[in-house]
């Protein structure tokens, strides 16, 4: 019985943890007056976000997540309105560091309960980046009545070489994610990241042999 | 005397026109900014987009390795350094140095590409 309960919880943790990644790439918003689209797709997690930066530090958006357990018995859907705030940025001569706040609120539906629940999802993330090195960490709370899926993730990586502005830059990124209360496992995902101007793509396979595709695009 | 006067006026007008055309063709002006925090093409493309939208902008060049942004003015137009700094700031970066150079974006791009190799 315990094993039966743990399996879907583990899978659910994996899905929900994946959601934080979209907010932890190169930054969860673009420059002032820009619109940014983000996606994070794996067999059990399909998420899409779009937000618009009204100022250099504030963006509002909408997003949706479709989740499914490994055994395909449990599904959940979360639709949210989001607010993203660039709390602090430090521009160095050869580096940039950011501290972000991401807040989300919306309705959660699931096949393990009737109706819908209001979910609040505030989070913070920090990142440090040079043209060759990337580090980030994020924590996001997913709270609804009777549900607590706090998520933490860390990322690190390096680019294989420096590139000019108009060239494709490949990176190797390693991510570890974990969610309190739902998963006993830490998901480890090595990914290849490619950046070319306004295109940002990541592909990888996690330690549960699940494929992953992330993208960001600024309009 | 009349013939001399006509020749003199013609020479002056011709010289003036030639000088004007010549200087117009070669008086390229660009603003070159050194920018802190510019580490990623995905993030920095906001700089290019915002600066390209300025009315006096002819062309923009971004060099991630040297942390340089160059804006070339349209013919007969003057670039506003303060406005350029503000646009870069709005894109999320800090300008540490700003200078006007008598070079086109194409020239500077070629020069930088040569240095980066």
Largest sheet of chain A: 12 strands, antiparallel, barrel
Q: Point out poorly predicted stretches of chain B.
A: 16-25
User: Could you state the order of secondary-structure elements of chain A as H and E?
Assistant: HEEEEEEEEEEEEEEE
Tertiary shape of chain A: globular
Span of the ends, CA to CA of chain B:
64 Å
Q: Can you give the mean pLDDT of chain A?
A: 83
- The helix-strand sequence of chain B is HEHEEHEH
> Separation of termini of chain A?
49 Å
Q: How would you sum up this structure, described in words?
A:
The complex is a heterodimer of chains A (219) and B (117). Chain A has 219 residues and is mainly beta. Chain A is built from one helix and 15 strands. Chain A has one helix spanning 2-22; strands at residues 35-42, 45-53, 58-68, 75-91, 96-110, 116-120, 123-129, 133-140, 143-144, 147-148, 151-159, 169-179, 187-196, 199-205, 211-218. Chain A is globular, with a radius of gyration of 17 Å. Chain B is an alpha+beta fold and 117 residues long. Helices cover 50% and strands 24% of the residues of chain B. Chain B contains four helices and four strands, in the order H-E-H-E-E-H-E-H. Chain B has a four-stranded antiparallel beta sheet with strand order 2-3-1-4, with helices on both faces. In chain B, strand 2 (57-63) and strand 3 (68-73) form a beta hairpin. In chain B, helix 2 (41-52) runs antiparallel to helix 3 (81-90). The longest helix of chain B is centred in the first third of the chain and has 25 residues, at 2-26. The termini of chain B are far apart. Residues 16-25 of chain B have low confidence and may be disordered. Chains A and B meet through strand 4 of A and helix 2 of B.
């Amino acid at each position: 019985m315990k094993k039966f309960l743990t399996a879907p919880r583990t899978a659910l943790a994996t899905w929900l943890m994946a959601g934080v990644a979209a907010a932890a790439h190169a930054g969860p918003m673009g420059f002032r007056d820009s619109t940014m689209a983000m996606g994070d797709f794996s067999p059990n997690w399909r998420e899409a976000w779009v937000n618009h930066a009204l100022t250099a530090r504030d963006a509002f958006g909408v997003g949706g997540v479709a989740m499914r357990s490994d055994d395909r018995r449990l599904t959940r859907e979360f639709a949210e309105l989001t607010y993203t705030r660039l709390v602090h940025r430090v521009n160095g001569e050869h580096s940039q560091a950011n501290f972000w706040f991401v807040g989300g609120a919306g309705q959660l539906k699931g096949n393990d309960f009737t109706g819908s629940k209001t979910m609040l999802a505030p989070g913070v993330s920090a990142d440090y980046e040079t043209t060759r090195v990337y580090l980030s960490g994020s924590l996001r709370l997913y709270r609804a009545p009777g549900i607590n899926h706090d998520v933490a993730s860390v990322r690190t990586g390096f680019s294989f070489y420096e590139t000019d502005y108009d060239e494709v830059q490949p990176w190797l990124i390693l991510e570890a994610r974990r969610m309190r209360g739902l998963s006993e496992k830490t998901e480890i995902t090595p990914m290849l990241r490619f950046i070319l101007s306004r295109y940002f793509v990541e592909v990888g396979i996690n330690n549960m042999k699940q494929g992953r595709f992330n993208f960001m695009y600024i309009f | 005397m009349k013939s001399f006067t006509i020749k003199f006026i013609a020479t002056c007008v011709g010289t003036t026109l030639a000088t004007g055309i010549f200087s117009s063709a070669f008086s390229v002006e660009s603003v070159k900014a050194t920018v802190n925090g510019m580490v990623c093409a995905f993030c920095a493309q906001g700089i290019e987009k915002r600066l390209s939208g300025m009315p006096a902008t002819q062309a923009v060049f971004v060099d991630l390795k040297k942390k340089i942004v160059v804006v070339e003015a349209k013919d007969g137009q003057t670039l506003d350094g303060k406005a350029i700094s503000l646009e870069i700031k709005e894109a999320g970066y800090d300008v540490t140095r700003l200078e006007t150079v008598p070079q086109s974006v194409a020239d500077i791009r070629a020069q930088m590409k040569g240095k980066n190799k």
